[in-house]
Amino acid sequence: MTIRFLYIIVSTLLFLGGCQSAQTQTPSPSDNSRLNTVSPSKNNKAGYLQRSYDTWEKEEWEPVTEQSTSKHASDKIETATTADKNASWGLQKYVDKWGHYIEEKQKEPSTPSQIEKLNAMPGIGKSR
Fold first, then answer.
1. CB-CB contact of 116 with 128 (8 Å)
2. CB neighbours (10 Å) of residue 66?
3. Residue 54 has what pLDDT?
4. What does the DSSP assignment read for 47-85?
5. Cβ atoms of residues 106 and 100 within 8 Å
6. 94: exposed, middle or buried (C-beta count within 10 Å: 0-12, 13-18, 19+)?
7. Alpha-carbon separation of residue 33 from 16, 22, 27, 39, 44 (angstroms)
8. Cystine design at 50: which of 1, 46, 59, 78 (Cβ 3.0–4.6 Å)?
9. pLDDT tens across 52-80, in order?
10. What is the rounded (10 degree) CA torsion for 115, 119, 121, 124?
């Protein structure tokens, strides 16, 4: 019984000690000079999601919300990036801005869906 217990303790200590030494000896990919010589990391551009968000913000969000004013305050709504760093930027300003954006988007005519297009076709769609 004690030999088994001693065997379990020794093997566990050797296993854990080996894992720890392996972790300290392996450099991270950014610190590995051999990897950097073969494949240097030159991709410092933002990813797809960040680029699509930035495009949406510049093309859709900012033009619609620049003219909006807050319903709860008389001043123009400012984004967090353009707001004064010392001024408090509350959630209500963002909610008002989002409400104005949704109202403007609902005013725009929507493009017909594929189902509507198929239903409008003679012989394929529903007869009126």
1. no
2. 12
3. 92
4. -HHHHHHHHHIIIIIHHHHSS-B-SS-SSBP--TTTS-T
5. no
6. middle
7. 28, 18, 9, 10, 19
8. 46
9. 999 999 998 888 887 765 554 444 545 54
10. 100
Whether residue 115 has pLDDT greater than 50: yes
In the prediction, which pLDDT does 87 show?
61
Least Cα distance to 94 among 120, 119, 71 occurs for 71
- How far is 14 from 8, CA to CA, in rounded Å? 10
Q: Quick one: CA torsion of 34, 35, 37, 41, rounded to 10 degrees?
A: -150
Residue range 2-26, pLDDT digits in tens: 888 888 888 887 777 665 554 566 6
The torsion angles phi and psi of 108, rounded to 5 degrees, stand at -70, 140
What is the 8-class DSSP label of residue 113?
Answer: P
Rounded CA-CA distance 121/34 in Å is: 63
Beta bridge partners of 76: 69
Q: Write the CB contacts of 77 (distance below 8 Å, at least 6 apart in sequence).
A: 65, 68, 69, 70, 93, 96, 97
